[in-house]
Amino acid sequence: MTAPPPIAMLAELTHRCPLSCPYCSNPVELARLDQELDTETWARVFREAADLGVLQLHLSGGEPASRRDLTHLVRAARDAGLYTNLITSGIGLSQQRLAELDEAGLDHVQLSLQGTNPEMADEIGGYKGGFKRKMQVAEWIGAIGFPLTLNVVLHRRNLHQLPRALEMAVEMGARRIEVATVQFHGWALQNRDALMPTREQAKEAMATVAQARKDLKGTLVVDFVPADYHDDFPKRCMGGWGTSGLNVAPDGEVLPCHAAQSIPHMTFDNVREKPLKDIWYKSSSFNAYRGTEWMQEPCQSCDRKTVDFGGCRCQAMAIVGDASATDPVCIKSPHHAALQAQADAHSAKVDAPLTYRVGPVKAREPVT
Ligand code: SF4
Ligand code: FES
Q1: Tens digit of pLDDT for each residue in 237-282?
Q2: How far apart are CA 70 and CA 86, in angstroms?
Q3: Ligand 1: centre distance to CA 312 (Å)
Q4: What is the 331 CA–ligand 1 centroid distance (Å)?
Q5: Ligand (nearest to CA of 335)
Q6: β partners of residue 112
């Protein structure tokens, strides 16, 4: 099939991060500091992305502010003509640094929220004082006037804070909030007992979001990723594999999605060795699950196959052991009932401890 050009690129600038969220979507094997792409290589990749058709660049991590050259990277991305969005916990950003990012042309900030009070946020992020710091950063972001999206990951421990998170987004002047129920990849997969929402929580969150969308129409856009283990149809993961977006890992590997390295038979090309354009159009990884030809039954004959593209390949791999299987979230999957029972069993483990993400092996670079 002929693929369309990508619209968005996620640049995972580093896996280093001051927080240790137990649901971190980064792979369990994190890239070390000495494996990270340097400033010049990233700048070249940004130019190649723009030539390929990418419009939006999401600068992410880990914590992208852990990169000392973040301002240079933003400037390079703007020079390449890309719209730049910084996805950050706020930790590592000073008022001065935000002003420099503004000056370099940063277009948008997406601030993550681990909880709506210090007790919850600092416990989940594993970083004492993180919430207070984040609130300070939110004020600076507002003072500069960056368009802001608040990004909150919900799970069994903090789902009751959703109404307050919505209020906080309005108070901060955010234009959008992304409410994502935890997706079980990376570190989150190891924390299903501690984080799995109950079925009741999943339903309540749907109702809260539906009400907020009515009440806040024109003020705040509410994006929502539901608790899919409790759902009957899967999400259209990545908008369809190799369809609209790509991720570049800190070491330069180009991934069709952030969890693609969890598919063991797959190999990935690297921007150090190949142009981004060749990787997007010709690589075996991007072509593996593009379109619909690779699908098995029941997806192959399903009328939703171009709606959700069979759901999430990484979830099929993690649960069924076959990345080309129907996402087990789907009610038509032979594994659906078992997944729902598994979700209920995980959510009943009330005393399960959190397993925090640990940082890359090599010592962290100090944040300036
Ligand atoms: Fe989607 Fe496949 Fe389920 Fe149909 S059978 S709804 S295509 S996941
Ligand atoms: Fe990889 Fe969904 S996270 S396809």
Answers
A1: 999 999 999 999 999 999 999 999 999 999 999 999 999 999 999 9
A2: 10
A3: 10
A4: 8
A5: 1
A6: 151
233 lines ligand 1 (CB under 6 A): yes
Cβ(84)–Cβ(59) under 8 Å?
yes
> What digits encode the pLDDT tens for the residues 112-149?
999 999 999 999 999 999 999 999 999 999 999 999 99
Cis peptide bond prior to 62, omega within 30° of 0:
yes
From residue 81, alpha-carbon distances to 13, 87, 105 in Å are 19, 19, 11
Secondary structure element (H or E) that encloses residue 342, with its range: helix 336-347
Say which residues have a Cβ less than 8 Å from residue 222's Cβ, sequence separation at least 6: 166, 176, 177, 179, 209, 212, 213, 216
Q: What is the reported pTM?
A: 0.94
Q: How confident is the model at residue 181 (pLDDT cuts 50, 70, 90)?
A: very high
Which amino acids bring their CB within 6 angstroms of ligand 2? 185, 237-238, 257, 259-260, 312-314
DSSP state letters, 250-297? TTSBEESSTTGGGSTT----BTTTS-HHHHHHH-HHHHHTSSSTT--T
Query: 240 CB under 6 A from ligand 1?
Result: no
Q: Name the helix (H) or strand (E) containing 314.
A: helix 313-320
Question: 239 CB under 6 A from ligand 1?
Answer: no
CA of 289 to the centre of ligand 2 (A): 11
Q: Across residues 24-48, what is the average pLDDT? A: 91
